[in-house]
């Protein structure tokens, strides 16, 4: 409650005597105090407001006596009323504090209960921690083991992915339902890589590991199944499409042949089927070309030209040569070598690296088998044509024709092939027929000349041209091949150089070309000597043999053996001639009996 003490305003001191008398007057002091009170003070105004609330304001109509009485009553009971009011407020405050105290007591009870519960929970937590310590340690151990097992699982997964085939890859290699294709060859490639990597597991200090042995066994089984599948695929393809004259080779066949090169026995089995199929196809096509011609009758059948030996033999040889070239290209495609002849002149020397030598060997074997079926019909017709000719000129032309194709086929199919041997036999037969035809010409009994007769000169010219062709086309190739060999390969153990043996396959040609002529010279000289005793047969024989020897001398690289035989025969006749002339000279001079 606010104080009712009014604020006293300051005023100047009264120094006059009358003023000092008034200051001692109580009424004056009271009035002065009332008049000097400042009712604008906030505390005063608050106190007056409180009093007005405590003591109600009289009505405006009340008279002054009533108002004064009311004010006097208020002044008298102000202290008591204020104390009563203060007591009531204190009682109210005490009552409120009692309720607060009760609430605080209840709160304290709850807090105590909470403390007890927390203590119990803490105790339970402590006991639980003690009880779960072992479990936590076990959980930590299991967590570490799980991480270790997870790492091992990752390693094993990677190991299995690197060293095992998936189910799809196994099906691609072993199942008959999955065709041979890119997926199959990818699986085989992975299987071969697994085997290469697995050799590391087999090379440990403790010997082969169990895992390595198991992997090698499983991959070996799968790989063998894959090779068997390739064999079945190639066999089917070769039997199905090999009957066509022109066979298209796709990438799958090329890759299959390439894969089987690591299994020569399986490759040989597949290629033998291909060779047999191609042999029948080529033989059928050749017989059709001889008797029926091409499609729609063009080109015309070769047999229609049988009356013209050169045209007839040339057409047959040209067809065979074209078939050999096509077969060579086809087999080169099968082996995956593609355009292996690109940039090479027709009939020129083929050169192969060491890696291609094996492929070239089986390609020539296949060509030998495939084209070998043509040798019989071709050789029979050529020999029949040659033997039916009476003119040596025709035989000579056929011989030159055979010589050209012989050299060409020799470079393509090899010296050991049936086609090459058939060409050699036909060429030898032609030369032999020509030689016997020329040697059957009788000597002119009226010709006293001692020079070689005309038929020997003609035959020698033919032989010279044949040897020139052989030397330029065949021996240059052999000499170049020998020059390309390492120097150690041309020396024997004693350091002496080996003889190259050039022209060894030309020896039979020289035999059939020269032996009949030499035989006819000897027999002809003896027969003519009997008819003309004065004619010097020995000189004629020596001159003829010397001329034949002079034809062979420029080609000594492959005629040395034949020259030695003729020289031996020539020396015999020269010795006989010397003996004859010596005896005749001694007889004429009378010294024979001395």
Automatic annotation (TrEMBL):
Keyword annotations: Golgi apparatus, Membrane, Protein transport, Transport
Q: What range(s) does the Conserved oligomeric complex COG6 N-terminal domain occupy?
A: 69-175
Q: Where is this region: Disordered?
A: 1-22
Q: Where in the cell is it found?
A: Golgi apparatus membrane
Q: Could you tell me where the Low complexity compositional bias lies?
A: 1-18
* Ranges of residues in domain Conserved Oligomeric Golgi complex subunit 6 C-terminal: 210-592
Q: Where are the transmembrane segments?
A: none
Q: Name one GO cellular component term.
A: Golgi membrane
| Presence of keyword Nucleotide-binding | no
Report the function annotation for this chain: Acts as component of the peripheral membrane COG complex that is involved in intra-Golgi protein trafficking. COG is located at the cis-Golgi, and regulates tethering of retrograde intra-Golgi vesicles and possibly a number of other membrane trafficking events. Acts as a component of the peripheral membrane COG complex that is involved in intra-Golgi protein trafficking. COG is located at the cis-Golgi, and regulates tethering of retrograde intra-Golgi vesicles and possibly a number of other membrane trafficking events.
Alphabetized PANTHER family for the sequence: COMPONENT OF OLIGOMERIC GOLGI COMPLEX 6 (PTHR21506), CONSERVED OLIGOMERIC GOLGI COMPLEX SUBUNIT 6 (PTHR21506:SF0)
Q: Which family does it belong to?
A: Belongs to the COG6 family.
Describe the subunit structure. Answer: Component of the conserved oligomeric Golgi complex.
What protein does this entry describe?
Answer: Conserved oligomeric Golgi complex subunit 6
Species per Swiss-Prot/TrEMBL record = Ephemerocybe angulata
């Amino acid at each position: 409650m606010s104080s009712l003490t009014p604020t006293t305003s300051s005023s100047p001191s009264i120094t006059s005597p009358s003023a000092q008398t008034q200051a001692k007057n109580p009424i004056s002091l009271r009035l002065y105090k009332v008049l000097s009170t400042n009712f604008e003070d906030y505390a005063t105004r608050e106190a007056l407001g409180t009093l007005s609330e405590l003591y109600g304001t009289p009505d405006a109509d009340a008279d002054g006596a009533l108002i004064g009485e009311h004010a006097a009553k208020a002044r008298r009971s102000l202290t008591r009323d204020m104390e009563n009011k203060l007591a009531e407020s204190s009682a109210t405050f005490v009552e409120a504090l009692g309720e607060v105290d009760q609430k605080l007591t209840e709160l304290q009870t709850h807090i105590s209960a909470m403390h007890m519960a927390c203590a119990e929970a803490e105790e339970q937590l402590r006991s639980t921690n003690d009880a779960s310590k072992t479990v936590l340690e076990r959980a930590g151990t299991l967590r570490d083991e799980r991480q270790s097992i997870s790492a091992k699982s990752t390693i094993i997964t990677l190991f299995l992915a690197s060293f095992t085939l998936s189910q799809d890859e196994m099906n691609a290699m072993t199942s008959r339902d999955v065709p041979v294709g890119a997926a199959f060859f990818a699986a085989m490639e992975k299987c071969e890589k697994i085997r290469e990597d697995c050799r590391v597991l087999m090379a440990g200090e403790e010997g082969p590991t169990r895992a390595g042995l198991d992997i090698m066994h499983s991959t070996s089984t799968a790989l063998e199944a894959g090779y068997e599948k390739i064999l079945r695929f190639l066999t089917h393809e070769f039997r199905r499409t090999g009957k066509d004259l022109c066979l298209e080779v796709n990438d799958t066949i090329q890759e299959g042949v390439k894969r089987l090169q690591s299994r020569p026995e399986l490759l040989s089995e597949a290629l033998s089927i291909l060779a047999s199929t191609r042999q029948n196809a080529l033989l059928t096509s050749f017989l059709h070309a001889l008797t029926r011609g091409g499609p729609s009758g063009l080109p015309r059948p070769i047999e229609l030209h049988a009356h013209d030996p050169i045209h007839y033999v040339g057409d047959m040889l040209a067809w065979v040569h074209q078939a050999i070239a096509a077969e060579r290209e086809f087999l080169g495609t099968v082996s995956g070598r593609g355009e292996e002849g690109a940039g090479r002149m027709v009939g020129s020397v083929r050169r192969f690296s060491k890696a291609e030598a094996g492929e070239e060997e089986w390609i020539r074997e296949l060509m030998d088998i495939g084209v070998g079926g043509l040798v019989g019909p071709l050789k029979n017709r050529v020999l029949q044509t040659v033997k039916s000719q009476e003119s040596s000129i025709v035989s000579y032309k056929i011989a030159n024709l055979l010589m050209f194709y012989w050299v060409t086929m020799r470079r393509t199919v090899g010296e050991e092939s049936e086609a090459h041997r058939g060409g050699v036999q036909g060429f030898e037969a032609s030369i032999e027929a020509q030689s016997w035809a020329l040697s059957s010409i009788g000597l002119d009994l009226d010709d006293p000349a001692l020079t070689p007769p005309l038929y020997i000169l003609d035959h020698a010219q033919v032989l010279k041209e044949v040897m020139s062709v052989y030397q330029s086309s065949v021996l240059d190739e052999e000499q170049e091949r020998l020059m390309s060999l390492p120097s150690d390969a041309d020396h024997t153990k004693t350091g002496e150089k080996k003889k190259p043996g050039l022209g060894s396959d030309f020896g039979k040609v020289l035999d059939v070309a020269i032996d009949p002529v030499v035989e006819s010279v000897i027999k002809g000289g003896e027969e003519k000597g009997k008819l003309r005793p004065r004619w010097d047969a020995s000189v004629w024989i020596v001159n003829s043999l010397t001329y034949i020897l002079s034809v062979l001398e420029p080609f000594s690289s492959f005629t040395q053996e034949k020259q030695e035989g003729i020289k031996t025969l020539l020396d015999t006749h020269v010795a006989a001639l010397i003996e004859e002339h010596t005896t005749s000279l001694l007889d004429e001079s009378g010294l024979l009996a001395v």
